[in-house]
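Module 6 notes. Inverse folding takes a fixed backbone as the condition and produces residue identities as the prediction. Think of it as a translation problem where the source language is geometry and the target language is the twenty amino acids. Below is one complete input and output pair. Work through it position by position during the lab.
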């Protein structure tokens, strides 16, 4: 991501590894005194990421955790004990989130497995709560459409709805994409996106519904497969840069290192966007010694955009450029989203601009998954028309 040639005119953004932290990013240079008011918060989903993000909300000093919900008692108790949540405000079972939404609180953070996001997010908006939602927003087309509906309803009800994509919260990603949209690298010629990851494991779905809730990653109807659950990060940046829905996709994929009843371990998808713009996408997991990347390169007639979640952003055009490190984007981007969520609530900013792009990138991931599963080219409008829903096995689980 280094280059030595000089520009005739240029705008360079430089940053240290700490540039993506809350201290330097400052989504607002100064909040009003009112912005220091504490938001009463409920956490839905108390697994690993739920516990992690609860700490970040608490550390901001702008929120107070007053309720939590999860299917499992041990998980709500772990969060409840750490954050001083009363025992009678720790809700369990599949419908525990409904009882949480009946309680007095301002906003909810949803960190449950992806299958549950649409139902819970819409219910939260209908209950008058502000919503902070983990990615991916859904595992299927009906779920994505439900989130789109929830986002529109939130705006109508004067509620904030934010989707937690960390790249979209980073100032350097924002600036580089803005320049692409302004024509800094000229007309897009081709885009490539990829996500190699050494992690992910080689497991299979557990045998019982309750065990599947604890170890849901390998359960297709709950996770959506890893192209949706993980690799959506790179597809979100790609569709952000391209700023259009794909027209169709053709793909391949399969299991080379995971067992036959597990999710795939690799995908290779070619997307076609308007004006015959091609986006080549690959993702693979569970391969030792792989260098982890979440990368997108956009080749324009006048330059290049090159961004990686783990390292930084580079844009070079004839007259403008960006080069910046993003540091720990996983934490830094989330902290910015937490801060901006609070700011939007206090200031009444309910445009909710993260919803529609998240629906687009999630549907793009689903399109790639379904194309790879079928081995056939699938058009965007056909995907939407089919409106296929995934259903996990929940029979026998406690309500």
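Target side of the pair, the amino acids:
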């Amino acid at each position: 991501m280094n280059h030595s040639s000089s520009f005739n005119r240029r705008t360079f953004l430089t940053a240290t590894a700490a540039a993506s932290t809350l201290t330097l990013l400052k989504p607002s240079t100064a909040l009003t005194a009112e912005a220091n008011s504490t938001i009463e918060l409920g956490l839905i989903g108390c697994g690993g990421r739920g516990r992690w993000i609860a700490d970040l909300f608490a550390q901001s000093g702008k929120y107070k955790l007053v309720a939590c919900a999860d299917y499992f008692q041990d998980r709500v108790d772990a969060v409840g004990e750490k954050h001083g949540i009363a025992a009678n405000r720790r809700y369990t079972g599949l419908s525990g989130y409904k009882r949480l939404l009946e309680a007095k609180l301002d906003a909810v953070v949803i960190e449950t497995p992806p299958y549950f996001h649409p139902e819970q997010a819409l219910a939260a908006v209908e209950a008058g709560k502000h919503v902070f939602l983990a990615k991916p927003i859904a595992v299927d087309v009906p779920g994505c459409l439900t989130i789109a509906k929830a986002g529109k309803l939130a705006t109508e009800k004067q509620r904030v709805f934010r989707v937690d994509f960390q790249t979209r919260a980073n100032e350097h990603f924002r600036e580089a994409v803005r320049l692409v949209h302004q024509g800094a690298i000229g007309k897009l010629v081709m885009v490539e996106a990829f996500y190699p990851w050494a992690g992910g494991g080689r497991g299979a779905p557990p045998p019982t519904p309750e065990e599947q809730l604890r170890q849901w990653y390998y359960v297709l109807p709950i996770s959506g497969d890893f192209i949706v659950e993980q690799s959506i990060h790179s597809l979100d940046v790609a569709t952000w840069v391209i700023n259009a829905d794909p027209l169709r996709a053709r793909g391949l994929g399969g299991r080379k290192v995971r067992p036959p009843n597990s999710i795939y371990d690799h995908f290779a998808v070619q997307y076609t966007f308007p004006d015959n713009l091609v986006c080549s996408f690959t993702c693979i997991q569970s391969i030792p010694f792989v260098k982890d990347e979440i990368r997108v390169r956009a080749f324009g007639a006048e330059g290049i955009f090159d961004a990686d979640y783990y390292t930084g952003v580079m844009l070079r055009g004839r007259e403008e450029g960006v080069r910046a490190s993003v540091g720990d984007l996983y934490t830094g981007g989330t902290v910015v989203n937490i801060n901006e969520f609070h700011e939007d609530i206090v200031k009444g900013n309910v445009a909710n601009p993260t919803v529609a792009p998240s629906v687009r990138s999630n549907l793009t991931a689903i399109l790639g998954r379904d194309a790879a599963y079928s081995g056939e080219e699938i058009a965007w409008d056909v995907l939407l028309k089919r409106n296929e829903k995934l259903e996990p096995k929940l029979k026998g689980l406690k309500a």
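Reference fact for the lab report: The chain has two domains: 26-163, 167-386.
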